[in-house]
């Protein structure tokens, strides 16, 4: 018998304690819903932190896993297989970039981007150009947990326990053009930008800031790196969030939703940037394996076949309007941000956000709290208007209850003191 209490007890003894899990045990998923061991249905507005874009038990995903697992799971990058070029063709056609490096996670994709930026700077120097070795990243950024990624991640609690991390990173105030210009020089090999910051609280970079970063890089030969691990791959209604700005980065990274839960990541680059890597300079055993590639191709084809980018825009706009109307009615909502199905509701205090998140779980709706005060929604792309209506009604009740509780001084009941993270 699968039982939450016994699994909790076993994990507390057996696992390295890196996660503060919420006390839920899911055993099955179907469409936009997860089911716990007692058969309770939860509406999932988080999709495994932006991963399960096609929801759960999607027939095309299941068929791709089944067919590929009967044929070939893995051969290594010593040999060719048909899936890597098929997936790379789909990604380059949609991104406007020329070449792809495959890996297994977001942080690995970002790590590849950082290494490529350093290799590219080295390449430029050997051609008599001066490009330094330093990076500019943004305040409130999140780029992953490996040593390079964490060095470009702003939040101190992720970096400090591991210092010294990779040196040579300066943080620019978010959307502050003067700070960007002041900190940029020919010592910079790359500017790192999430077009919409995810973990930092759903903050879209401004058009002027992104365009200025592009122009500064163009002037010195530094690379513009766009981290689209959370905001890319259709999440905002376009394949890549930078396409909402009409700006092409030199390098982008994708991962989370690429294969609907099968681990995969990719770094995409222009020909000019990609030529800094030559055989042997970088690699990974599992990267671009036949299973992950086959499933990612199936996900892309399914998004196209079902017109899900237009659907994300349509349902996302509807969701956004619902949140804006809630904000008109509830003073506790400080801001509504995001695009497509990447949405954030900023509340006045962390206590309110915690109480509202807890109330949503009690109403069997899954979302998460990030950066203390922000409720984040990254639902599957197959979300329908009726699910949005259900979520808005539940948020309305949760906000009502949380505000009257805080007005009466009652302590909110929450499942976890810590917001959960990527
Ligand atoms: C999740 C995330 C990462 C890290 O991805 P992992 O697969 O967890 O390593 C990097 N950048 C952004 C923007 C992310 O959202």
Blueprint of the fold:
Layout: H1 4-14, E1 26-30, E2 33-36, E3 41-44, H2 47-50, H3 59-71, H4 83-95, E4 99-103, H5 106-126, E5 134-138, H6 147-151, H7 156-159, E6 169-172, H8 177-183, E7 188-193, E8 196-197, E9 203-204, H9 207-220, E10 223-227, E11 251-254, E12 265-269, H10 271-274, H11 290-305, H12 308-329, E13 333-339, E14 342-347, H13 350-362, E15 365-366, E16 368-370, E17 374-377, H14 385-407
Parallel strand pairs: 3-15, 5-6, 5-7, 7-10, 10-11
Antiparallel strand pairs: 1-2, 2-3, 4-12, 8-9, 11-12, 13-14, 14-17, 16-17
Helix pairs in contact: 3-11, 4-11, 12-14, 13-14
The protein binds pyridoxal-5'-phosphate.
Pyridoxal-5'-phosphate binds near residues 106, 142 and 199.
Remind me, CATH topology of the largest domain?
Aspartate Aminotransferase, domain 2
Q: Which range does the strand content fall in?
A: 15-25%
Fourth-level CATH superfamily of the largest domain? Type I PLP-dependent aspartate aminotransferase-like (Major domain)
Biggest β-sheet strands, sense, barrel:
7 strands, mixed
- Gyration radius over CA: 22 Å
Provide keyphrases for this structure.
single chain; 422 residues; alpha/beta; Aspartate Aminotransferase, domain 1; Aspartate Aminotransferase, domain 2; 7-stranded mixed sheet; 4-stranded mixed sheet; 14 helices; disordered C terminus; binds pyridoxal-5'-phosphate
